[in-house]
Amino acid sequence: MKIIAHRGYSGIAPENTIAAFAKAIEAGCTTIELDVQLTQDSVPFVIHDPTIDRTTNGRGKIIDIPADELCVYSAAYEDKFGSDFIEERVPSLEDALEFLKGKAQVLIEIKEESVFPDRQDLEKGVVDLVKQHGLVNDAMVISFSVDAMRRVKALEPAVQIGFLAGRNEPEQGLATAVDLGASLLLYHRSQIDRSKVDAAHARNIQCAIYTVDVPEELDQYVAMGIDAVGSNQPGDLIRHMRRN
Known about the structure:
10 helices
């Protein structure tokens, strides 16, 4: 089973930062998930929320902030980590890929709220950077958005995609993943059972769940045959697997 560092090692470092990615790699993670949003001037940056309010020392919607301003804010997530990471900044996707290249597989989540019917700047920006960094075989683009996944495949069929099944419609997840040509199907852990795993494998699609932070909970998912588990505490899960 593969352990995916959810937003990096976000249990011990500010989520979606180079520090969190570095700590995940140090802990033995070979797969890292991160989120992307688009700035005012159409530059993909690594941040989860559509605003910078929660995780930085600034305020505002990312879509209203140009890249040269966004990269100035501290991404220390002081409400959670105090001043321990005060020098950390919101990384651009380019900076993140440059850091992670050759160190880990990257799952790039296109946030559903950043997908617009009349523009595909974010999807194109992500695909272009994946290709520029030679990561077509070492990166995967994932999303809850069917439209985003279709656009990614249209822009570059060789890029792997993963579909995040919505909590309200898990039964349609596999059919949608097959239709999209997805390599990975991701469920919330509350949605999963052995039949879903077996059905995905029967269609040659890997099955992952999110988010598991308690090591002892991992065993039941190993028994189900799940291929990957996302975690905010990936180091704890890796240590548990090594002991067992």
